[in-house]
Design a protein that fits this description.
- By secondary structure, the chain is of the alpha+beta class.
- It has one domain.
- Helices cover 18% and strands 37% of the residues.
- It contains 3 helices and 13 strands, in the order βββββββαββαβββαβ.
- A hairpin with a 2-residue loop joins β6 and β7.
- α1 (55-64) runs antiparallel to α3 (120-129).
- The chain is globular.
- The protein starts with a strand and ends with a strand.
């Protein structure tokens, strides 16, 4: 099976109220609040060290069965800039994609350089739902 590095759109950042242990690297997040700064429709977004997907992608992933990740709730807040620059944009429902798999082995994994790695079948689903702002490169096994 082929694997790919994927760098999703950074549509915002870690919001105030997030609970995270920064004494380790990467930080371990136990409660996530994502502050949306600007969203252009991608079904997967990120803010180090977290990833989010829209609910429809979660359902599609659950339908095929997958390895290397679980889901958790996330609270989304819109920044003042978002409200000013994109006042009519309705956000879709996002869920937190908690990646815990082995890169190049599971469907989701984190490479040694902390980049997200996904299998071909996961990339196909993300592509089908729309990740126009994401950068995708072949995974070289590191």
């Amino acid at each position: 099976m082929e694997y790919f590095y994927i760098k999703p759109d950074v549509a915002g950042g870690i919001g105030r109220g997030t609970v995270m242990d920064t004494s380790v690297h990467p930080p371990v997040v136990s409660k996530l609040i994502y502050q949306m700064e600007g969203w252009f429709g991608d079904v997967m977004v990120t803010a180090f060290p977290c990833f989010l997907v829209v609910a429809e992608v979660k359902q599609a992933l659950q339908n095929i069965g997958f390895s290397g990740a679980s889901f958790a709730d996330v609270e989304i807040k819109k920044s003042d800039d978002f409200l000013e620059l994109q006042p009519h944009v309705e956000l879709r429902q996002f869920v937190w994609l908690k990646v815990n798999g082995k890169a190049g082995h599971d469907d989701f994994g984190i490479a040694g350089d902390l980049r997200l790695v996904v299998s071909q079948r996961i990339l196909d689903i993300l592509d089908a739902f729309g990740i126009p702002s994401a950068t995708v490169e072949p995974y070289d096994g590191r």
